[in-house]
Amino acid sequence: MRNANAPIAPGSTIGIVGGGQLGRMTAVAAAELGYKVHIFTPEPNAPAVQVAKHATVAPYDNQDAIEAFGRMVDVITFEFENVPAETVRHLTALAPVRPSWECLAVCQDRIEEKSFCAELGIETAPWKAVGSVEELHTAIAEIGAPAVLKTARLGYDGKGQVRIHDDTDPARAWDEIGGGPAVLEGFVEFEQEVSVITARRPGGEMASFDVVENRHRDGILDVTIAPADIPPEVAEAARDIGQKLTEAMDLVGLLAVEMFVTKGGRLLVNEMAPRPHNSGHWTQDGCATSQFEQFVRAVCGLPLGATVRHSDTVMKNLLGEDANLWEQHLSDPGNKLHLYGKDDAKPGRKMGHINRIYAKGSQPKG
Ligand code: AMP
Fold this sequence. Notes:
The protein has 366 residues and is of the alpha+beta class. It folds into three domains: 13-97, Rossmann fold (3-Layer(aba) Sandwich); 126-186, Dna Ligase, domain 1, CATH 3.30.1490; 190-358, ATP-grasp fold, B domain (D-amino Acid Aminotransferase, Chain A, domain 1, 2-Layer Sandwich), CATH 3.30.470. Helices cover 27% and strands 27% of the residues. It is built from eleven helices and 17 strands. It has helices at 21-32, 63-72, 85-91, 101-107, 110-119, 133-143, 170-176, 232-248, 283-286, 291-299, 326-330, and strands at residues 13-17, 36-41, 54-57, 75-78, 127-130, 147-151, 161-164, 182-186, 192-200, 206-208, 212-217, 220-226, 253-261, 267-273, 312-319, 335-339, 350-358. The strands form three sheets. Strands 9, 10, 11, 12, 13, 14, 15, 16 and 17 form a nine-stranded antiparallel sheet that branches. It is globular and about 60 Å long. Adenosine monophosphate is lined by residues 125, 148, 155, 158, 185, 187-188, 193, 216, 219, 258, 270-271. Residues 125, 148, 155, 158, 185, 187-188, 193, 216, 219, 258, 270-271 line the site of adenosine monophosphate.
């Protein structure tokens, strides 16, 4: 029988579920290591399809199509985690699935995610699961305002969430997020938002990238600053949290963990994603190994690459029409421009990003 931890050799085909920019940049990194990529996506001209050898275009719930895809690849991973966990479970019989469907199930659902943290003694904002308007009334009484009501599943980039103030009508807030299941979270007066990405290969070896600061605008990541300007002991604690969660999930691949840093230096986990993350794009130009290369190495069971930061980096997302200013962005020779090949520059849509690199220690703060 095949050793479950044996490497999946270059030349093999990596199946990626999801066709967005994360899949596109993973496919490019995979090609550099000699792999072929097969994308599964509902969108014919998705960013990842444009750079992959094979693509299956079908809805995520097309069981026959996803099983046929599973038979054509040597390992399966995700750039999009909101695939029905049940669909993914069926794939396990066809090829190694990394990370596992159990990891996806935890990260797909805010209630599972927060309960998982609680079991490990990792702090989050105070929260309550809510399944009805009546439960929301009780939760508000318990947690107090201000608070944030979030759908338990399928929320991203600030969608599916609403602020609760003293004068908010709970029934209206409930309607606004489209009903439950949901969580009510206490509002955190954070000093900073940070994240850390941990890679883990089969057998358990792990490597973490530097902790970075994330600044959001309208609920969408705007800028990532690498490294975060936080005391070394807080950075160490953030890396420990990332590794503890990765190990406890027995995750193979990447786990991105977003956290709030409070004024007193406490770390509260906000969200996790079992895949490359927007806050890790800086590694493409600021680090010895990019998060995408590391993802491929981890999923294929290759030795992990060095995560040392060679340059301080500021990553800026290009949303909507911002990407059309490519000429202006390129006129600064220190800017590294990454575009995703999307046609429709809708407002707020992630079209590309810029990594601006600086000599270590010289990056402007704040
Ligand atoms: P999320 O979708 O959970 O990542 O939330 C999007 C953004 O909303 C976060 O990055 C924060 O800036 C803000 N946010 C979410 N939850 C809270 C909270 N409990 N307290 C304060 N700000 C929050």
